[in-house]
Amino acid sequence: MSDPVSSTPGGPFLSVRDLRVHFSTEDGIVKAVDGLSFDLGHGRTLGIVGESGSGKSVTNMALLGLHDSRNTTIDGEALLDGQDLLTATQRELERLRGNKMSMIFQDALASLSPYHTVGRQIGETYRKHTGASRKEARDRAVEMLAKVGIPQPELRVDDYPHQFSGGMRQRAMIAMALVCDPALLIADEPTTALDVTVQAQIMDLLKDLQQETGTSIIFITHDLGVITDIADDVLVMYGGRCVERGTKQEVLRAPQHPYTWGLLGSMPSLDHPVDVPLSPIPGAPPSLLNPPTGCRFHPRCAFIEQVGNGLCADAQPPLEVVDGRGAACHLTPAQRVEFFADFAGIQTN
């Protein structure tokens, strides 16, 4: 059965099925991603949210073919416009990376070379995939810096990364990622190290560029506030698995999984009274070297008694998806509605 996050004419642009990414270590096998499926429609933004270690970045590094094959086992299927990324050769992936699909990394200063000008780094990506001359590549770099809002781009193109502010470096990374007009853009927490004002500017920039180019975006974050601003669809990951998915409105307004409730409860909001304390999720994320049996969230879940019979610890709940909406939880649909109503009441009282 097809289970898209979002339906688009002609089918999804990116279709991932039963993705598994396991790492071999001296201590054993780390099941970083363990059976993940999702779709991404043309021109839409999928927000992937979860705590550190949930498998968000590992998933997208696998799509780009950036894991070390010597200690990594990757299974499943990932079709980008019909081409399986997981069976592609390194040469095929090199042709795709920076061209048809690109990634914006979290730490722009670490991702940019300190030895080359920003313009040269943007231009080299363009030259590699188009065969442009040095002058054409420089002109394209100036054009892209202007497009992402860098003032005086014809001058700043010859500056080095350390001469840019944090927000400007992130803009330069976006310019580099978009220089070849990719159809898929993966943004790995691109606003984490930036102040709130710059974060908002970067988010507006991504939305404007997407509207202009029609690029499909995967936006990775641990911040549901960011998801509210940019995503069309949301996939919530925990312990290497998807626990909930749907449209932004469905997941954020009527979440069906206790982990999503916990994420919302730990997020400050201007709508809540100032004297209402945040409700952090107790405990810590599971070890993916030796994950819990059954539902991986059950050691931290406040609702296992409502399910009863030890089911949460014994059986992995299936992710039942209908029209792109689903949650992997043993609570009945009626219980989910009841308990979320209680949770929402606590948050507003």
TrEMBL record:
GO molecular function: ATP binding; ATP hydrolysis activity
Protein keywords: ATP-binding, Cell membrane, Membrane, Nucleotide-binding, Transport
Family matches, as Pfam families: ABC_tran, oligo_HPY
InterPro entries: AAA+_ATPase (IPR003593), ABC_Ni/Peptide_Import (IPR050388), ABC_transporter-like_ATP-bd (IPR003439), ABC_transporter-like_CS (IPR017871), Oligopep_ABC_C (IPR013563), P-loop_NTPase (IPR027417)
GO biological process: peptide transport
Compartments reported by the entry: Cell membrane
UniProt keyword Metal-binding, yes or no: no
ABC transporter domain sequence ranges: 16-264
Protein topology in the membrane: Peripheral membrane protein
Protein family membership: Belongs to the ABC transporter superfamily.
Descriptive protein name: ABC transporter ATP-binding protein
